[in-house]
Amino acid sequence: MSDSNTISAVTRDEQGTGASRRLRRDGKIPAILYGAGKDTVKLTLDHNTLFHDLEKESFHSSILNVEVDSKGERAILRDVQMHPYKPIIMHIDLQRVSAKDKIHMNIPFHFTGGEEAPGVKLEGGIISHLMTELDISCLPDDLPEYIEIDVSGLNLGDSVHISEITLPKGVESTSVAHGGDDLAIVTCSAVRGSQAEDEVIEEVGEEAAGEEAAGEEAGEE
Q1: How far apart, in Å, are the Cα atoms of 167 and each of 64, 164, 173, 185?
Q2: What is the value of pTM for the model shown?
Q3: Which of 34, 49, 162, 209 has the fewest CB within 10 Å, making it most exposed?
Q4: Based on the domain organization, do 127 and 157 belong to the same domain?
């Protein structure tokens, strides 16, 4: 867990479409902070600063330090509303967290060892990522920024399923915990048009050519 991501905000009284439009013209965006048994607070954030923050993967899966009028609040990013076709943030939702209450988050996977996997190095396969993130449940202080999966031992046809990964202490997969499907996260699969497939195509072509030649000889007779 990291508290290195900080959002500076100020409270606002104005609300509605007109007020939000004026904020955006001034390079600001409207936001709300809610949860943890406290009142919802309407906030104003700096657009450009937040836009760059959103480019960081950790910003989406970390506990954020929200400084509201110089007072700190711990929160997670719950929703980001973007303009339909412009690179403009329209609104964000922040949810306060309590040290005693578990939170649900989608945490990204980081895959390592792909080039060393026997299925890739020796058998000409590729590593296919079937899932990019995992829905987990944990206390805020146990929240990981990512989950690392080592695929260096995969042979052609091997897969890694949710039940096979080792999660950090205090973290559980909500899918497995609630009896959901034990989905494959990553697999080592054959490449379409691989050498083996090319050899089969070549053999079929040779057989067809042989049959055609035999037919021509029979016609000449």
Answers
A1: 22, 9, 8, 14
A2: 0.77
A3: 209
A4: yes
